[in-house]
Amino acid sequence: MIAALVVLxxxxxxxxxxxxxxxxxxxxxAFTKQYPGTVAKWELEDGKYExxxxxxxxxxxxxxxxxxxxxxxxxGIKVSELPATAVAYVKEHYKGKTxxxxxxxxxxxxxxxxEAELKGKDIVFDANxxxxxxxxx
Length: 137
Fold this sequence. Notes:
Blueprint lengths: L1 H11 L3 E3 L6 H10 L6 E5 L2 E8 L2 E7 L5 E8 L6 H10 L7 E7 L4 E7 L2 E6 L4 E6 L1
Antiparallel strand pairs: 1-2, 2-3, 3-4, 4-5, 5-6, 6-7, 7-8, 8-9
């Protein structure tokens, strides 16, 4: 029983690929309304549904609650588009590491965050490039 609990806890922390047929209809409807004609790959992470897709040549993802409410969207950006203060923070606190990808995250309330992806972790900043948190991949 303890082993089963450990497996459950460790697997729930990671995203699970999900067949579109397993995504609630209300979530798929919300996605289709927002991004008509777009085909997405779905994942389930922490009880939320993430649709990943390409739009206008950019990698994007959108996260929904099970009730179809969008919580945030993310678009891939060039590292040069990250706030200069965020890039400086990474250089100072993660010496020798290279930012592999950048992303702009827009929360449902309009709040903007930026993400610098390093090998094995994402560093999250506010709209001004102030460090917020580190998230392990």
